[in-house]
Amino acid sequence: MLLVCVGGGGLIAGCATAAAELAPDMRVIGVEPEAGDDTRRSLEAGERVRIPVPRTIADGQQLPIPGELTFEVVRRLVSEIAVASDPEIVAAMRFLFERLKTVAEPSGACALAALLAGRVDAEGLRVGVTISGGNVAPERFSKLLAE
User: Fold this and answer.
1) 61: pLDDT strictly greater than 80
2) What kind of architecture, by CATH, is found in domain 2-146?
3) pTM of the prediction?
């Protein structure tokens, strides 16, 4: 089993903690915007790494450094961090809206974006993906989907 979840912060720390308790064999993968991969870099370095505040449409993930407490949880329970580009995030938002009639903000669609773009190896696995946050203004949502 595989769980694909947004980012390297509180949401994935909570999801990974629940997954570890409920299904200890489940692999958990986090997803960050390509431009803001602070958690991925931090995991590779073995310590929290600060990056410049990223320029990405996923404004909920525009962080320069992983949180101190959540990083320790992510380090213990998350297998890897994948990335998604801004165009891939928009494609996931469009997919959710057109196929599922669901509005997701860019950060909330990031995990699905990586999965749909083939950035996560999920072949043959039963997959869960977190989709969170509809906190996007209608004007911004429309503009992103029109690009």
Assistant:
1) yes
2) 3-Layer(aba) Sandwich (3.40)
3) 0.94
